[in-house]
Amino acid sequence: MLLHFGRVPVVIVSIANTAREIMKTNDVIFSNRSKSNISAKLLYDYKDVSTTPYKEYWRQMRSICVLHFLSTRRVLSFRGVQEEETTLMMEKISSSASSTPIDLSQMFQSLTNDLICRVSL
After folding, report:
1. Which of 3, 22, 32, 90 is the most exposed place for a label (fewest CB within 10 A)?
2. pLDDT values of the chain reduced to their tens digit, one per residue, 121 residues
3. Dihedrals φ, ψ of 70, to 5°?
4. Residue 54 and residue 109: Cα distance in Å, rounded?
5. Structural domain boundaries enclosing 7
6. What is the DSSP string of 66-82?
7. Which residues are CB-contacts of 30 (< 8 A; sequence separation ≥ 6)?
8. For residue 57, what are the contacts with CB-CB under 8 A and spacing of at least 6?
9. Could you give the 3-state DSSP secondary structure of residue 11?
10. Can you say how many angstroms the Cα of residue 82 is from the centroid of all Cα atoms in its chain?
11. Residues 22 and 52 in one domain
């Protein structure tokens, strides 16, 4: 199915084998990111890992991120922070469970933000 989100065409494939074949033969076409003026200004002219075009620079940046930030040892080193933030979130849920409805999407967004901030600092 082809949809247009504004002026961005989006292909949706619901069959796993077809999706796998498309990504195997046309992965470079589908892996490029859309560009906007605001992204260029905020993200150092697309030098950010999430916005840089799929080329050699992106492959080098991904390799550095995986090696230094997402290695098993590094992820396990933050286990205490993860457990502490999860415990705090569970306490918030249990304290407000009896009185009002809980917006879990907001809670998970807050948990993710808190984790990223604490780990990066």
Report:
1. 3
2. 889 988 878 888 889 998 888 888 877 776 666 677 777 788 778 777 777 877 888 889 889 888 888 888 888 999 999 999 999 999 988 887 667 788 888 999 999 999 989 988 8
3. -115, 20
4. 28
5. 1-31
6. HHHTSSHHHHHHTHHHH
7. 11, 22, 23
8. 47
9. strand
10. 17
11. no
